[in-house]
Amino acid sequence: MQAALRMRDEEQTGHAELILGTRASRVGWAAGHLLFVLLGPVVALAVEGLLAGLAFGEPGRVPAASLAQAPAVWVLGAIAVLLVGALPRHSAAAWGSVAICLLVLLVGGLLGMPQWVLDISPFTHVPQLPAAGFTVVPEIVLILIAALLSGAGLTALRRRDIPA
Fold this sequence. Notes:
- With 164 residues, the protein is an all-alpha fold.
- Helices cover 70% and strands 0% of the residues.
- α1 (2-13) packs antiparallel against α3 and α1 (2-13) packs parallel to α5.
- The longest helix has 31 residues, at 26-56.
- The relative contact order is 0.16.
């Protein structure tokens, strides 16, 4: 999330203009940030899973369970990329998607929210490993959603003026 929002910060401080004044393309500049959006959570989830796995005596199962959350995190990062590209002045609203996910996950069941509200969070759709079995379809769907949102954000970024 923060890696995607860093693009907007670089625009506001004038750093993006300096970079884009060279041979760097907008998409290339954004792709560097997108790389962190994709790989940052994977590294963090892998380390967290490994440490939790060692602590609980499940060094094989817990890291896999942690990594299963990555596509849901990518969807949130892709929302940030879309907002930075399409609605840069409102890009901080990407944190609202995180807040909604937390609200739904923490109190959605307790408040008896309807299933369609719970389904707003991408974390509702990832396999609940290691307690449940792994299903690949929700992971693929979340990856496709993240790719579509990121692609739309990059397309919008390419079409607008920088600095905004």
